Every structure is written in C-alpha cells, then in structure tokens.
Amino acid sequence: MSKSAASTDVLDPVSYAVTVPLPADRAFRLFTEGYNTWWPGHHIGTAEMTEAILEPRTGGRYYERGVDGSECEWGKVLACEPPHRIVVAWQITESGGAWVYDPDLSHASEFEATFREQPDGQTRVELEHRYIERHGPGAAGIQRGVSGTGGWPGILENYAKTAAAA
Question: What residues does 113 pair with on adjacent strands?
Fold first, then answer.
C-alpha cells in the first residue's frame, strides 16, 4: 500500500477468493441475480434498504432500493461475460466519514469477480477490487472498508455460506 492517499499514489488492489459447491453458471447467477440473498445489508441511501441489485449485463445498474421505493446508485456494470466474469464500477466514495455515491465515473474504482469451475464441479470465485486511488482523498477509507472483515472478506464468506445452502 502507498504511504498516503494522494491521487498520484497507487493503492494495492484488494483480493479475496472463495470456493463454492456450485457449477460456474449457478455460482454466477447467485452472485448477480441473487445478489440480494447474500449481500449483508450495507447501504448508503437515506432510507432503510429493502434490496441490493446487480444487473448482470454490460451497462447494467448496481444500486439499492429503499423501503420507501427510493433508489440509490452504487455503480454500473462495465463488462459482463456469464458465467465467467463481471466487472463493476464502484462509484461509492468516502466523504466526511460517510460513504456516498459519486456520479463521476473517472473517480470510480472497480471490482471484478471471476468464476473458475474446478474439476470437482465446484467454482472458485475470485474478486479483485482495484484502482481504489481514483477515489482521491477518500481512497484510504475505501481501501480500509473493503479490505476489512466487514468488507469483501466477510461479504464473500456470506456469499459462500449462501451458495453452500443453495
């Protein structure tokens, strides 16, 4: 990791992987169409969240829907190649201690999830969250958040538990 969060520094990507007892096509569908079934409930909208949505298509939306019907954007799908990979712009940044949506795509980091079916029929799901430095002054906070136990490690463990019960 870099010494500071200055925009010229490059921050190390955050990587995490799990193996799930599903073939790649089912693992991919659970990750995308079933996103709300394993997402832990983190949200940035003003209303309590009823669901988190990741649309499995290039150009698809990544967002939350609140109990009042409001929607809060999180990002957009940059590439979608079922059942092999999905790349998503993470347009959530840290500002004043809060995580907020930033509509400027040039400030977005991205995460890529790849699905590699194993000879035993299980699938290794590898996630890399990269280009975090694009968030500028909020980058260090984003990196701490997505790399901690409440970030991708815990979130993907929850995904693996949901996959095991599927």
Answer: 86, 127
Q: Residue 112 contacts by C-beta under 8 Å, 6 or more apart in sequence? A: 85, 86, 87, 88, 127, 128, 130
Quick: pLDDT tens for 37-49: 999 999 999 999 9
Q: Which residues of the chain have pLDDT under 50?
A: 1-7
pTM of the model: 0.92
> Residue 96: what pLDDT?
85
Q: Determine the pLDDT at residue 102.
A: 95
Mapping DSSP onto H, E and C, the string for the chain reads CCCCCCCCCCCCCEEEEEEECCCHHHHHHHHHCCHHHHCCCCCCCCCCEEEEEECCCCCCEEEEEECCCCEEEEEEEEEEECCCEEEEEECEEEECCEEEECCCHHHCEEEEEEEEECCCCCEEEEEEEECHHHHHHHHHHHHHHHHCCCCHHHHHHHHHHHHHHC
